[in-house]
Design brief:
4-stranded antiparallel beta sheet; two-stranded antiparallel sheet; 15% strand; flat; 4 helices
């Protein structure tokens, strides 16, 4: 998809370039760079045009312990911290929306690697749960139970929803994947899966900005 291509070929590549050169840049400047691509999609591919491609929201870049995992978050004019970097981008193609988010680590600790592995396993578990006829609340409860079994205590840091329905509307509020939403998933529905943990500490960080 366009969103995936932007994340892989431009967003991540830009961050790697900045980190590799140890440049001091702001979260906002990186987000503006990505937003510029979506404003002129010919820079992404000559086959695309501004008539068919648009941003669903302003691209988000966060680091340094200051994180907001909601799509309404804004990239701040603060300097990028080379630790844990969270970035997301959403685009609309011919009126239909898609979204991709990534967490990038620079010199992660063994504990961070272990937690990340658990989250990747949780993501696959949730994907396996998604079948026509399953209640969205059951998907969330299963995710909680998975964390309790695999890494007790992490369930307390699970985000309050695991994503939402997506289509012509970027965020279908009635299709939140949450503990209290008992709507049944149906064939043909499309969801944006957003598995995440928040407010985790990193006591082995070398500075205060890396401790969250």
């Amino acid at each position: 998809s366009i969103t995936q291509a932007v994340m892989k070929n431009f967003f991540v590549t830009k961050l790697e370039e900045v980190i590799g050169s140890e440049k001091k840049v702001t979260h906002e400047s990186i987000a503006d760079y990505i937003d510029g691509l979506l404003s002129d999609p010919r820079k992404i591919s000559r086959k695309l045009s501004a008539e068919t491609v648009d941003a669903c929201y302003a691209p988000i870049v966060q680091s340094g312990g200051d994180y907001n995992l909601r799509p309404s978050a804004r990239s701040k004019a603060t300097t990028l911290h080379y630790g844990t970097i969270v970035c997301s981008v959403g685009s609309r193609y011919k009126c239909y929306c898609s979204n991709v988010a990534r967490t990038l680590f620079v010199n992660p600790t063994d504990e961070q690697k272990d937690v990340y592995a658990v989250v990747l396993a949780l993501r696959q578990h949730v994907l396996d749960m998604f079948k026509p006829g399953v209640k969205l609340s059951a998907v969330y409860q299963s995710a909680t139970d998975f964390l309790k079994e695999k890494s007790p205590g992490l369930e307390e840091s699970l985000v309050d929803n695991l994503g939402f329905g997506v289509g012509l509307e970027f965020r279908e509020r009635q299709l939140l994947i949450s503990a209290d939403n008992h709507i049944v998933a149906e064939s043909g529905m499309t969801f944006n899966l957003s598995v995440g943990l928040e407010n985790l500490s990193n006591p082995n960080a070398k500075n205060d900005k890396g401790k969250v």
